[in-house]
Design goal:
This protein is of the alpha/beta class and 359 residues long. The chain is 42% helix and 14% strand. The strands form two sheets. The protein has a six-stranded mixed β-sheet, sandwiched between helices. Helix 6 links the parallel strand 4 and strand 5. It is globular. The protein starts with a helix and ends with a helix. Bound molecules: ligand F0G. Ligand F0G binds next to helix 5, helix 10 and helix 14.
């Protein structure tokens, strides 16, 4: 029998990892029981991409309360904003940050303003921001332009910034690395992750380093970051004025945590590379159709990157790769339904249906 005490027990990332986070007993903890997401062993992927004796684990962050990894950082950012007396928060977003900010703000009565790029935000994310009650401002421009506006507004008013430039966001997000170490018993040899504004790769690297220093893990992984080819400023070495990719979550031309990403790459002996929209689409379909894990296109960039490296014999046998699947596939219904010839209309006639299924 489940006791009431157990039901009441808080299980968000701040409570689980308080000793590693900048919180005190005075911090009001705003949580949606985020984190504790599954680390799923990929069954079909290694063989498909020619990897023998290498394990791939999918850290499925799409199972967070608002459907993406952003909830880990947002519980921290909103809790700290409240502690500092904030009345309103603001972010620019390709969609997931805005959904998460809106949810946590609604939970504690903060006003929430979000700026999103017109035409390049997945429907599921946009509708979340509205339904959680945020004030949504649709900018006729891209994410980078929206972020510039938000930086100016939050530095000249008392509205709190909750983009990952806010260090509390990174603090919360690093808990995903802790969970992976806790589940595997150590850090993996490699960690693959999509890179957009570069906050998450920065956070994971911080998390892995802190856990090792505290003696909770032994090794450090090589950090493998992947940008979309049309939005790959870090790979190219300069900002991209007009970033393009079907993976709208990482359609970013001038990442705020650029330096953090380089540090993660260089300190870990890893790499940051680009994958094409075709490669992303292949990975997106494969993990859904063969692994039963439905993640959004940006998440699939990390899987596409692992495939690319496997083809170059990059991975050593006997090792483990963790891959962060950053968001749920349900976020982007338009992309999910964009494949031709999948919808087959048929009259309600037995013979016609049997013909389609080959029965
Ligand atoms: N994957 C998804 C699903 C994302 O939403 C994002 C970022 C990333 C990967 C990249 O993470 O920015 O830390 O390098 N989304 C932000 C947003 C930009 O506004 O939701 P990052």
């Amino acid at each position: 029998m489940v006791t009431l005490k157990k039901i009441e027990k808080k299980i968000g990332v701040i409570e689980r990892y308080a000793e590693f986070l900048p919180v005190t007993t005075k911090t009001p903890i705003i949580s949606l029981n985020e984190g504790n997401t599954p680390l799923i062993l990929a069954e079909a992927l290694p063989a498909e991409i020619g990897l023998k004796n290498v394990k791939i684990y999918l850290k499925f962050e799409g199972l967070n309360p608002t459907g993406s990894f952003k909830d880990r950082g947002m519980t921290m950012a909103v809790s700290k904003a409240l502690e500092k007396g904030a009345k309103a928060i603001m972010c620019a977003s390709t969609g997931n940050t805005s959904a998460s900010a809106a949810a946590f703000a609604s939970r504690c009565g903060l006003k929430c303003f979000v700026l999103v790029p017109e035409g390049n935000i997945a429907k599921g994310k946009l509708l979340q921001a509205f339904r959680y009650g945020a004030k949504v401002i649709v900018v006729k421009g891209n994410f980078d332009q929206a972020l510039e506006l938000v930086k100016t507004i939050t530095s000249t008013t008392d509205i709190h910034l909750v983009n990952s430039l806010n260090p509390d966001r990174i603090q919360g997000q690093k808990t995903a690395a802790f969970e992976i170490c806790d589940d595997l018993g150590d850090a993996p040899e490699y960690h693959a992750i999509p890179v957009g504004n570069a906050g998450n790769i920065t956070a994971y690297w911080m998390g892995y380093k802190e856990y090792q220093k505290a003696g909770r893990s032994g090794r450090l992984p090589k950090m493998l970051g992947f940008q979309a080819a049309g939005s790959a400023p870090i790979v190219k070495g300069h900002p991209i004025e007009k970033p393009e990719t079907i993976a709208t979550a990482i359609r970013i031309g001038n990442p705020a945590s650029w330096k953090g990403a380089l540090l993660a790459r260089d300190e870990s002996g890893g790499l940051i590379e680009a994958v094409t929209d075709e490669e992303i689409t292949w990975a997106y379909r494969f993990i859904a159709e063969r692994e039963g894990v439905f993640a959004e296109p940006a998440s699939a960039a990390a899987v596409a990157g692992v495939k690319k490296l496997a083809e170059r014999n990059y991975f050593k046998p006997g090792t483990t790769i963790a891959v962060t699947l950053t968001g749920s596939g349900l976020k982007d219904p338009d992309f999910a339904l964009s494949f031709k010839d999948e919808l087959i209309p048929v009259e309600p006639v037995l013979e016609k249906v049997k013909k389609i299924i080959g029965a």
